[in-house]
Design goal:
The protein is α/β, with parallel strands linked by helices. Helix content is 43%, strand content 21%. The protein contains seven helices and five strands. This is CinA family protein.
Amino acid sequence: MQDPADEFAAIARDIASRTQAAGVRVATAESLTSGAIANALGAAPDASEWFQGGVVAYAESVKRSVLGVTAESVTSTQGARELAEGVARLLDADATVAVTGVGGPGPEDGEPAGSVYAAVSVRGKILDAHFQFDGGDPSAVVHQTVRAALEMLRDALPR
């Protein structure tokens, strides 16, 4: 599999262009993707001007103690929304993207493999989505999640 920073470069360039035009600072909160979204964003043009950074919150305790997730299940719509809000506060960002889910190959916390929750927040407006990817291959789930998250962020940013 290609490095997400290479494969997703066109989407990241669009995000860079939109954030710079709007004066928006971006941050990520990632669970199952373990920093792959931040990797793609950090390789985009002039990232140091608009990308604040990211938090890889793989462990539930990190999601709760660092990012303030209170949802009963961290693998949920509410969990993704709270990750997005928490990283915005923590890293002083205007726009955030957050993902949490089950990479597989088996189910976890009552969710099937490939179940992914994502949220994007832009200046306080939050959008969320639930994806059900084929959970047979964890690396494929991560790959699909990175693409979906980057596209969600790009589409939520002002043109």
